[in-house]
Amino acid sequence: MVDKRAEGNVGVPFQVHIERGKIAEFSRAIAAEHPDHHGGERPVVPATFLTSMFHWERGRQGANPWSTVQMSKARGMHASQEYEFFGPPPRDGDVLNAQSRIDRIFEKQGRRGGSLTFVEMVTDYRDAAGTLVARAKMTAVETAKPAGGDGETKDG
Amino acid sequence: MADASMTKPAPRVLGPISRTDVVIYQGASGDFEPMHHDEPFAKAAGMPAPIVVGMYPAGAMCAWASDWLGPERVRKSWVRWRAPVWPGDTLTIDGEITGTTDVQLPDGTTQPRLQVAVQCTNQDGAVVLQGTMDFAVAGSESVQ
Fold first, then answer.
1. Does 3.30.930.10 match the CATH number of domain B12-136?
2. 0.90 exceeded by pTM
3. How many CB atoms neighbour CB A105 within 10 A?
4. Which of A31, A81, A84 sits opposite B55 (nearest CB)?
5. A112: exposed, middle or buried (Cβ count in 10 Å: 0-12, 13-18, 19+)
6. How many cross-chain Cβ pairs, A to B, lie less than 8 Å apart?
7. Hey, which CATH number is domain A4-142, 3.90.1150.10, 3.20.20.480, 3.10.129.10, 3.40.640.10?
8. Pairwise CB contact (< 8 Å): A47 & B83
9. Is B28 at the interface with chain A, CB within 8 A?
10. CA-angle at A16, arms to B143 and A71, nearest 5°
């Protein structure tokens, strides 16, 4: 069950190295065929590529504050996901400084009755100069009783 | 709006989605949640099969639009899951340009954006995933 006290919890900063090998692998996995992912000087990432931050936060203790939310696995699901870029998306060779936070926890009444608890985790990605280049927002929802959805509760 | 690249491409068929497709995606993304590939684990949790990881069709859906309008022009993608996707499902990805809007950036400047609606429909006609994407308008700012 969601612990509302987790709102505002901040993860330990971690670095994300954008690399052409991972861009090519990820692009093939989602059938992203545009040549800008697969060749040229500095291949560009697909729109949802920053979900692969899993690989980078895993090596950094405390990078992902999601576990502090304590959302039920049986009643929680990934509801929506957003990636925003404040200029062209990252390219091979970019090194981004990332930090995640539990931005917001709020409740809504479900259409079929029962309360829904929404949790938003925001991850900001900045370049070496500290300029915000990308922002990920993961929204997960915990229902009052078990539900289907896509079955995952811990994406970023 | 008149240039040839604005001509909408054909819908893209994703699937039938195999367990291997899911494993390839999970390896690429780093999300190793067993619910999406471990059959005994998923069944013990009450699922009929390992549920397809939602970010896989979400990524494919956004890729359809960025293959069309250019990945370097993507400025925003938003996706919402409407229904679960299972191994064996065949999804059809389609979308359309819905308009333009001006957005304010963190540095205070305003930029025009092309807005695109995208969706994934399964073999039964159910919309399982929908989203919106913003693209930089060609010529309005550096896309490199």
1. no
2. yes
3. 19
4. A81
5. exposed
6. 158
7. 3.10.129.10
8. no
9. yes
10. 110
C-alpha distances (whole Å) from B95 to each of B6, B53, B84, B132, B135 are 12, 21, 20, 9, 14
Nearest to B54 among A32, A78, A132 (CB): A78
Element (H, E) at A54: helix A54-57
User: Which chain A residues contact residue B81 at CB under 8 A?
Assistant: 77-80, 149-150
**Of B66, B90, B24, B87, the residue nearest A26 (C-alpha):** B24
Instruction: Specify the amino acid at residue A15.
Output: Q
Could you tell me if A6 lies within 8 Å of chain B, comparing CB atoms? no
Residues of A in contact with B113 (CB under 8 A): none
User: CA A22 → CA A15, A143, B27, distances in Å?
Assistant: 15, 35, 10
What tens-digit pLDDT sequence spans chain A (156 residues)? 999 999 999 999 999 999 999 999 999 999 999 999 999 999 999 999 999 998 898 888 999 999 999 999 888 899 999 999 999 999 999 999 999 999 999 999 987 778 999 999 999 999 999 999 999 999 999 998 755 444 444 433
Distances (CA, A) of B102 to A92, B35, B95, B110, B112: 29, 40, 21, 6, 4
Domain ranges of chain B: 12-136
Q: Does A59 touch chain B (CB under 8 A)?
A: no
Q: What is the ipTM of this complex?
A: 0.93
Q: Which residues of A touch B75 (CB under 8 A)?
A: 84-86
Burial B44-79 (b: 16+ CB within 10 A, else e): ebebeebbbbbbbbbbbbbbbbbbbbbbbbbbbbbb
B6 CB near a chain A CB, below 8 Å? no
Q: φ and ψ at B61, to 5 degrees?
A: -65, -45
